[in-house]
Amino acid sequence: MNIFVIEDDPRIADFLSRGLRAEGHRVEVASTGPEGLELARRVARERNVHGPSCVLVLDLMLPGMSGLEICQTLRAEGVALPILMLSALGAVEDRVAGLRLGADDYLAKPFDFDELLARLESLSRRGREVVPVASARLVVGDLVFDRERMQASRSGQILALTARELALLELMMSAPGRLFSRERILSNVWGASEDPLTNVVDVYIRRLRSKIDDGHADPMIHTVRGLGYRLESPAVSPTGQRSAG
Questions:
Q1: Helix (H) or strand (E) holding 138
Q2: Would you call 69 helix, strand, or coil by DSSP?
Q3: Other CB atoms closer than 10 Å to residue 24's CB: what's the count?
Q4: Which residues carry this modification: 4-aspartylphosphate (predicted)?
Q5: Within a 13 Å sphere around the CA of 89, how many CA atoms are in the beta-carbon half?
Q6: Other Cβ atoms within 10 Å of 73 Cβ, number
Q7: Which of 4, 95, 141, 232 has its CA 20 to 30 A from that of 42?
Q8: How far is it, in rounded angstroms, from Cα 12 to Cα 15?
Q9: Over the Cα atoms of the chain, what is R_g?
Q10: Do 94 and 43 touch, CB atoms closer than 8 A?
């Protein structure tokens, strides 16, 4: 695997470089934001030389240009390199911001090296396929999610949604008709540290449903008892799928 590390902390950069090389991977390091951006652009241009197994490890806090800015710039330019973002900022809001700007995965510092390897291997497999640039708008029936404004509307009416409700809605609208288990929703929206026995997913689904479906003859959020939830256009919704939840 070809791993390109953008990290300004010399201790972490050296640890990653030595550890990844010991595992048999090729590693190249950049230590500033502008230097990292040029490295990523070069890798994207020369990907036929490096091969498809290329992954970018990107620190969030960098001198000259932040990791978020680099990620956003690369995605805007159509660069589809898999990106694993590293940061000492492990709050949900920080992870969500990184993922929304185009990162494929997010790992908080301090991290376990074996977990880092597993995530890089997963991203490498995923990176063998071309990753399309995320659309600025998600549209399912008359429901619209504007990623740039972080605003949602149904039938032209703006929905008053909290940041967490927006994250939940964006996840479900990203794959209309897909069944999302409570565990998958919890992991994607709240993070792996959240108590798996909590009922927070059910609570937020009820809140989201009340704001999206109330007042409309055709519901969009459906509960599949014992399995999870799906969101789909009323035009294709199966009869009787919605249940209390």
A1: strand 137-140
A2: helix
A3: 7
A4: 59
A5: 15
A6: 17
A7: 95
A8: 5
A9: 20
A10: no
